[in-house]
Design a protein that fits this description.
The structure is a single chain. The chain is mainly alpha-helical. The chain has 3 domains: 1-64, no CATH class; 66-144; 147-216, Arc Repressor Mutant, subunit A, CATH 1.10.10.10. The chain contains 10 helices and 2 strands; from the N terminus they run ααααααββαααα. Strand 1 and strand 2 form a beta hairpin. The longest helix is centred in the last third of the chain and has 23 residues, at 194-216.
């Protein structure tokens, strides 16, 4: 188990909890125990290390990506990570895409494609705190379509158009569309016939539509 924990720490890059990696390494250790053949004369640790490391690599390759990418690109990420660490130690700076391509027998285009894919690997919980406000979660900062602006604009337009109607027309439209009264109820309230109320509503709406069309043009 100390060997499994040591390997888990080696592959821990902050993207997966160390406890999870230690569990994966333990599975790799069990597989190594099952497959180890003492008759071959090889030390158990020599056989166990690549078995445990392989289990860790498969786990990281298959479970830590937000966006699914080709397996070949995932395999390349492991080789690039090793080469990048070696080159940084040797060069004293971050290696270029061309230098990484040369060290991993990959093309520069593949290295650049991998860098784009790596940007999609880490994810952030929507319940995480916002950077500028620790008391607010990120999910409360996500932009949404605010229909209130459209309603406010429509209301302002109606206010302008309604000024072109007389007091009687404005009152009838208010009773019909804001108080949601039926034509019969409006007729009883203002003392007109239901048929006359219907004509007044149609006429007022027609004038509003024509005024709105003239305003847009």
């Amino acid at each position: 188990m100390p060997l499994a924990r040591q390997l888990a720490k080696r592959y821990s890059r902050g993207r997966e909890p160390l406890e999870d990696l230690e569990q994966v390494a333990s599975i790799g250790l069990l597989k190594a125990i099952e497959r180890y053949e003492i008759d071959r004369g090889t030390a158990f640790t020599t056989f166990a290390v690549p078995t445990i490391a392989g289990e860790l690599k498969r786990h990281l390759r298959d479970h830590t990506w937000v966006v699914r990418i080709p397996r070949a690109l995932k395999d390349l990420s492991t080789a690039v990570a090793r080469a990048e660490a070696d080159l940084e130690s040797t060069l004293g700076r971050a290696p270029t895409a061309a230098e990484l391509a040369s060290a991993t027998d990959a093309s520069v285009e593949q290295i650049l494609e991998l860098r784009i894919a790596l940007d999609a690997q880490p994810d952030t919980s929507l319940d995480a705190d916002a950077h500028d406000d620790p008391t607010a979660a990120l999910k409360h900062r996500i932009g949404i379509d605010e229909h209130g602006y459209e309603r406010a604009e429509a209301r302002a337009t109606l206010d302008v158009l309604f000024r072109r109607l007389d007091d009687r027309e404005r009152e009838i439209l208010h009773l019909r569309f804001e108080e949601d009264l039926s034509q019969e109820a409006i007729a009883a309230r203002v003392g007109y016939s239901q048929m006359h109320i219907s004509r007044l509503i149609r006429g007022a709406l027609k004038r509003l539509a024509a005024s709105h069309a003239n305003t847009k043009t």
